[in-house]
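Why do we care about 3D structure at all? Because function follows from shape, and shape follows, mostly, from sequence. That is the central idea of this module. The next example makes it concrete: a single protein chain, its amino acid sequence, and then its structure expressed as C-alpha cells.
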Amino acid sequence: MNAPQTHAAEQPVQTRPQFTISCLLWLMVAASLVLAYLRMFDRDEMLSGLVAIGIGLAVGGFVGAVVRRLADTMYWSLLGALFAFVCTAGYDLLFLFHPWLHYGWMLIGAAAGACGGARTPGRPAISMLAGGFVGGAVLGTFALVFTQAPSDFVLEVAFAAIVGAMLAAVIEIIYWVERRNDLPRYVTATGLLFAVIAGNVTAKFVLPGW
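And the structure:
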C-alpha cells in the first residue's frame, strides 16, 4: 500500500509582489513633492530634476538587471538621485568647483542607492563600506574625466564616500524598521524626502550661498 502523498510540492509558491498599489501611490507622492519643490527654481533646475529621475532609473535598472533585484535597485537608486538633487538644487557655490558637479552628485546618489538595494540587508558595516566605496569611486571618476585638475577634488571625493556610506546606513535602517515594525519602506522613505526638502529650504535662509 502506497503511503499517502502530500500535495505541498504541487502548491504554487506564493511570492510577494515587488510593487503594490500602495507603493506606487507613495512613489507618486514622493515625485509630486519633488515637482512641487522644483517650482521654487528656474526652468534649468526643473530640467535637472527630470535628469535626476532619468539617472536614477537608468542606474537602478542596469544594476538590478545584473543582480536580479530590479525593484529594490531601481527604488533606492531613484530615491538616492532625488535626495542628491534636492540637496544640491540651488546651491550656487557648487558651480564654483565645476558646472556639471550637480549631475555628479546625482550619479553618486543613484549609484550608492542602487548598491544598497542590490545587497541583502542585515550587514550594515559591509553595506556602508560598499556605499562609501561606490560614492568615492563615482566622484573620483567624474573628476578624472571632466576636470583638468583632479587633485583639487580630493576633499570632495572623501565627502562623497562619507555620503555614500551614510545613504547605505539609511537604507539598512529602513529595512530594519520595515522588518521590526511592519512599516512599509516607502512610507519611511517619503518621510525622509520631506526631511531633505525641509532641510534644504531651511539652509537657504541660514547658510550663505546655498
